[in-house]
Each structure stands twice: as C-alpha cells, then as structure tokens.
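Structure tokens please, single chain.
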Amino acid sequence: MSEKMLSKRPELNIRNVDQETVIVDKNTGEVHQLNPTASYIWDQFDGSTTIDRVITSLSNEFNIDADQASVDVNTVVRQLQELKLLI
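Here you go.
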C-alpha cells in the first residue's frame, strides 16, 4: 500500500478531448495522449490523493477488482513518472 501523494507538474498544458487527455510538456515540446483509463487515473493526482485512494476509486468507477486496479494504476504511475509528468 502506498501513502505517496502525487501531483501534475504545474507547467504542463493539459486538454481533455473525447475522454482522453492530451498533455503538452512546454519544456520538451513533447505531446502525450492518455487513453480514457489513464486519463481517469491522471485526473486523480491533485497532490492530496494517495495512490491507494486512486486504486480504490478506479476499482469502483470501472467495476474491476482491486488487484487489477492496482496493476493498472501502478503501471500508469510508472509511465507518467518516467515521462517526468508527475511530481
């Protein structure tokens, strides 16, 4: 279980388009597109929500078991951290 709270880098340009999120990193010029599940996870990171709460929320919202939600959330978090989109 993780009590770590993450938030989005403030200098990112973020737009929601048809249930997907488009993120433009102004520092690198890179554009990232998140699918609906990753977008849902991304939206939860406000600096005050733990990863465990995101897992519970995803499990409830998409009606999936907690183990699968944990895998999904941790995969997305790892990818977003590798892209340096979260702090």
